[in-house]
Amino acid sequence: MHSRTFTRPWLATLFFLTLAQFAFSQARTISGRVVDAQSGSSMAGVTVRVKEVSGVGTTTNAQGVFQLNVPAEAKTLIFSFVGYQNQEVPITGNEINVSLKPGEALQEVVVVGYGTQRAQDVSAAISSISNKDFNKGIVTNPMQQIQGKVAGLVITQPGGDPNQNVIIRLRGQTSITGGQTPLIVVDGVPLDDPSQIANIPPGDIESYDVLKDASATAIYGSRGANGVIIINTKKGRAGQTSVTYNGYVGLDWQAKYYDLLTADEWRTATKQLGNYQASLDKGANTNWQKAITQTAFSHAHNLMVSGGTDKFTYSAAGNYINQQGIVINSGKTEVGLRFNAQQKALDDKLTLNYGLLTTRTNRKYVDYSIFTYVFSTPPTYPVYNPDGSYFGYFDFEQQNPVAQQMLQLNRGNENLNIYSAGADYELLKGLKLGMLGSLSYFNKQTDFFQPTLPGVGNINNGAKYAENRNSKKGNIHIEYTRTWNNVHHFDFTGVYEYNDFEYDNFRAAGQQYLVEENQDNALQNGNTAFNQISSYKEEYKLISFLGRVTYNYKGKYYIDASFRRDGSSKFGVNNRWGNFPAVSAAWRISEEGFMRNISWINDLKLKIGYGVTGNQDAITPYATQLLVGSIGRYYNPVNPAYAYPQSYAPTQNANPDLKWEERHGFNVGANFSLFNDRLGGDVNVFNDKTKSLLYNYTVPTPPFYVNTILANVGTLTNKGVEIALNGTIIKGSKFTWTANGQITFIKTRVTSLSGTYAGYKLSTDNIPGGYAEGRGLSSNPITFLKVGYSPYVFYLPHWEGVDANGNQLFDSAGVKIPNYGNATFRYIDPAPKFNYGLGSTLNYGNWSLNFFFRGVYGQKIFNNTLLDVEFIKRLPGNNVTKEALTNGIQDAAVASDHWLENASYLRLDNVSLSYSFKQVKGIGSIDVYLTANNVFVITPYRGLDPEIRNADTNEAYIDANYGSDGYYPRTRSVVFGVNVSFK
Questions:
Q1: Domain 106-239, CATH number (from 3.40.640.10, 2.170.130.10, 1.10.760.10, 3.30.420.40)
Q2: Cis peptide leading into 702, omega within 30 of 0?
Q3: How does pLDDT run across 900-910, given as a tens digit for each residue?
Q4: CA 20 to 30 Å from 185, out of 298, 371, 530, 705?
């Protein structure tokens, strides 16, 4: 009885517990609506899935409504849509309404040339960098703001000269005789010369869009072979007036010095060698490297006012930069003004745009020959005489470099003015017709006067030079945009474009002036036998027709096709017009149904593109024509009054078949965002081929007038891989740690330097490049453009050490010989294996610490300076390094691979610590920062710095420190800056 009583209640309890478990384990229905957080409009096609259970999900309908049966263990729903941030929502009831926020990266607008696209819709290889990611510090050239930030883009500042142009290469070398710098476009207006980027105030720049592959750059046709860099300046926004100030002060100093002998070391060395000369010992102890340099002070200021209403917006900015050079009596100052505005009218159907940019830059140049005198002057010479005047001397390459740099007048003034205006009118819904016009004026004037220098006995001389580079540009464009059922998105752009370019220069020079105080302001008063005058002018036109169609289906499948036809007056009738097609496509795999359950992939897009671009920079406006010039005078006995009239003859053969060089590019890539947007990246693989390379080939005379002709016959290839990654390592409420990096592998090869023209064979085995320079060196080139090798391949004998007498030994088929003439020469590729950059930002509260590394692996540099100054034989009238006393080399300087050094490097480019005062009463926000630039460099290279002209013509991979061009030392700097935003 007792047992039966106990069992029944236990069974009843078990029954009800099972029933309860069954009831609670049943699926329940969750419903709701998804809207855009900004516009509040319904969002169709949003993916809704259960976080804890794979395979359970649905999508919202046209009204943004969803309904989903979820199991009991479901605790969280994940809402995702391309271009928006994923959102996780706890299940707390049967109805869930969500507002999705646009994703920052995918919603960014990218300028693609003659229009814009959302980042998520781009199918070509384009990289964008905004001002929050710019490099901070003393910026000599605006391009330094993105140095090392973009995969495939190599920006080289060869030294620390504030007046030196940067070298910009995008995806390798593109030409052997023409310009290789990408086209630079500022607010839709292409610069007439890429070097004018130095005149754009860095503080005015909002972002850069870098168009890398041919499918993106083909929209610029005959100017797009080197890539395109689009610069977007800061614009006004509707709302409260905004006043911002950005400024910094900084100090620069020379980062590294050569280990040259002191005066006492020089005396000891010459006495031990038995060639001490008392006449060279003036009793001084001068470090000539430090005598010509200084600690330089720089400051820059930018003040911008912007604002407006929903009908009118504006932005006005003033800039001032004052940058001393670390070399004495060098530097620059720059003043700039910028204004742009946008006006809407006629019920917002008409939009008017205005733009003005004007800058004036005053430059104080360096006479680069003074760097040679640093090595060719003994440290026993003083800088000044006891009375304070400059100590003077002269002997071949010996001259007081301080006196020369300080007493010379060597300056320039540059004025850049760009005016632009445009109008767009909406004829029908989605159909706009517009026009854009611009006027660009660039003027440069230089003054030079070298007085009679103390102790030198030189003939004073002076010169004035002026140049103008002006253009008129305009286009008429039409754009049609249409979307059907929020599924089909179509856009068409058509443009007619007209460009007129003019360039002229003038130079006058003279010598032997009695009144040196006039400097170059009375050039007619010198010895008339030495007066020189020259002038030049050219003009050409470029007319273009272009069209582009873009289409995407449901944000999954994209296609972009463009065609441009350029007509240039540079070419003959037969080749005046060129065609430049391009096509690219993309597939957003992450939007496919089979990807919905892969929660760790937020976005994944594959892309492929092909295009043809041109390069007309390699051709002057009159390269196709037969030119005649003066070649001297001849005797004419018929008229004694004009016994020696000027004679003329052809100076250039005509070639009406000349055409632009063409670059055919193929690109495949992928964009991805993973782990709830914690890791993102962009990968591209490209294969480009430049055809119809131009070079002056040798031809017979007759039938040709002169023995060379410019012709299109060569080819070269660029193949490479670009990888860019960004990620959030730690993401907390107060502390975040983000990192980004890029690495680029590029292999360039010269594949052909031969062909035919008019039945004649045109060919060359190689084209000489750079030369070793210095005392006692031969004039033979050491780098070449050679078929089958990368550009500027070295051709050098193999060094095997020295013998007992200090004679250098060279390899000749495995035999060591002290005879340079019989040595075995080898081709050595100096090109880097890869370039890379790595940055990281740590934020804690209002504090932020940012650092950026940049480097190169595998490059080789010919250390021309040490070749010349590591030889003890150069004493006593010169200085040498301490290494010269112990390296055992006793014979003359010889160019060999002994001086071709591994120049891989890792540079801590900048470190910046900043603090943000978010709300300051009566002001707004204040950000202050402290930045150090070029903090350290890790490299086996023994020169001053491994970053030299590694991408430039002629001197590529050759240290020019001891050459005629010299090398302005690289600097190290510390900067204190402030950004203030006023209410």
A1: 2.170.130.10
A2: yes
A3: 999 999 999 99
A4: 298
